[in-house]
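BUG: 3D viewer hangs when loading the predicted structure for this chain

Environment: internal workstation, default settings.
Expected: structure renders.
Actual: progress bar stalls at 90%.

Input used:
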Amino acid sequence: MSDEQQVPGDAEGTGAESGSVHRAGFVALVGRPNVGKSTLTNALVGEKVAITSTKPQTTRRAIRGIVTREDSQIILVDTPGVHRPRTLLGERLNDLVRETLGEVDVVGFCLPADQNIGPGDRFIAEDLVEMRTGRRGPRVVAIVTKIDLVGRDVLAEHLMNVDQLMDFDEIVPISAVKGEQIDVLMDVVTRQLPEGPQLYPDDQLTEETRDDRISELIREAALEGVRDELPHSIAVVVEEVVEVDPDGDAFTPVEPGTGRLVVRATLFVERDSQKGIIIGRGGSRLKEVGSRARSEINALLGRKVHLDLRVKVAKEWQRDPKQLGRLGF
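Structure tokens produced before the viewer hung:
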């Protein structure tokens, strides 16, 4: 069950004032895993539309965030981190990134200031250079993230190294956590976008459905504190979001706004041992996951919910095409 979504182009009476130049387009944020793409997406949108985690490869979908300004509309695509795939899921995530890059106007190539440029960065740069050879490829802006973690000398050296990586249209150092240079980055990106009308209504911040956002918040909560090999094995499916009679049968739906809102979701892992880790002794860890996720879901929906979580094993789902399809990949 998902919320009704607005269709691009349905916005009425929006955009810049008559006679002024308005720009609109799609901007993909790319980079190695865990370089700050999701944090930057949230900072630009001004609301949490992408989950964040210290665990690499947290993002699994090309999540769109929408930034509407008087002179422009920036549709952000927060892609999964490009990496050397070890599973079918990894291959599909890399394919998703490449497919996305072929459809956007601007690429924001994220390169963290606290990490040296490595083989993964060069791999992405080579792909971008190839895309821009022989045809009109996207504009590419280098976004040097996490500048709050390094000193000026380190940053200056890193910016020079970034400049040597490829022929960027512009280079912008930022800190999404501190909010440094975020406005500058939006101005730079706007200059690279094509002229065009607004594509989404003023108040729309993402294309993600309600259920997609809920499942991601549950997965984010489940990622906290787990061992390195487990995060990639966790998938979440929202089974239903339903209003029930608070005083009667907990499974009898009632009219919207008149009952208790219940979210029922399933966490899938690949092995029985992982199921035990997620549940914890006496269900203690699953309760923590539920508590953390519930507070985020309450904020998202603007009301208190009852969160009913189940954990199931879908053996080796990352390598199984049928199970990947059932889980939405």
